[in-house]
C-alpha cells in the first residue's frame, strides 16, 4: 500500500502491482503544502481521489476521510463516505478511529461502504496525543487492543496501525481475522504503507524512523530541471529535431 494523489503516479503504482492506493489526508502536506493534515477538506480531496481512480485498473482505491468530516455523527460519516464513493470513485474509505467511533464505522459499513480503521497514532488527533509519539507503550497498549476489537466488531475490513510498538501490532495481527497494515508498527502486520514522496526520496530532510528510501527522485528532478534551464539559456534547446519547418 502506498499513498497516491494523481493520475500518472496511480498508473505507475498500479502497473507495479501495488495492491492499495491511499489518497491520504497527507495530501495536505505533500500536495498543498500545509503544515499538518488537519486543514485539508473533503472538496480538496475528492478530485485527487477521482484522479487516482482514473489511473488505477486493479488496485483498491482507498480514500481518507479528513478531519471534521465524520466525527460529528454517524450520519455525517455516511454522508462524507458516500461522496468519496460517488464523486471520487473510491472503492473504500479510511477513518482514523477509536472505540468511541465504532458506531460511526458501523453506520458507514451498513451503508455498503468498506471501512479501514486507522488506530494507534492518529495524525488528526496529534494535539490530543501530545504530538508525534509512539503508541502502545505502558497503559496505552490495552486501549489500542480495545479499539481494534470494537472497530472490527463494528465491521472494519482492515486495521491500519501507525507508530505502535511492534509487540502490540503483532498481538493485534494474531488476534483478529482481518488484514492489518503497518506504518512504523514493525514487520508482523499483513502489509505495509508509506507516503510515496518519503519512500522514493522526493522530499528531503529528516524522515520518520520507519521510512526506507527506495529511490532518489529529488536528485533526478533537480538535475533534470537544472539541465533544462541551462540548455534553454545556452540555446541548445530547442534543437533542429524539436522544431517545425515550413
Structure write-up:
There is one protein chain. The chain has 246 residues and is α/β, with parallel strands linked by helices. It folds into two domains: 2-215, TIM Barrel (Alpha-Beta Barrel), CATH 3.20.20.60; 216-246, no CATH class. It is 39% helix and 13% strand. α4 (74-86) links the parallel β3 (60-64) and β4. The N and C termini lie far apart (51 Å).
The total tally of domains equals 2
Over the alpha carbons, how many angstroms does the gyration radius reach? 20 Å
Please give the largest β-sheet.
8 strands, parallel
Total helices: the number is: 9
Structural class: alpha/beta
Helix content: 25-40%
The CATH class of the largest domain: Alpha Beta
Strand order of the largest sheet: 1-2-3-4-5-6-7-8
Q: Got a strand count?
A: 8
- What sort of overall outline do the alpha carbons produce when their principal axes are compared? globular
Short description:
By secondary structure, the protein is of the alpha/beta class. The chain has helices at 7-15, 27-30, 42-55, 74-86, 102-110, 140-153, 166-175, 196-199, 217-234; strands spanning 2-3, 20-23, 60-64, 92-96, 115-120, 158-162, 180-183, 191-192. It has two domains: 2-215, Alpha-Beta Barrel (TIM Barrel); 216-246, no CATH class.
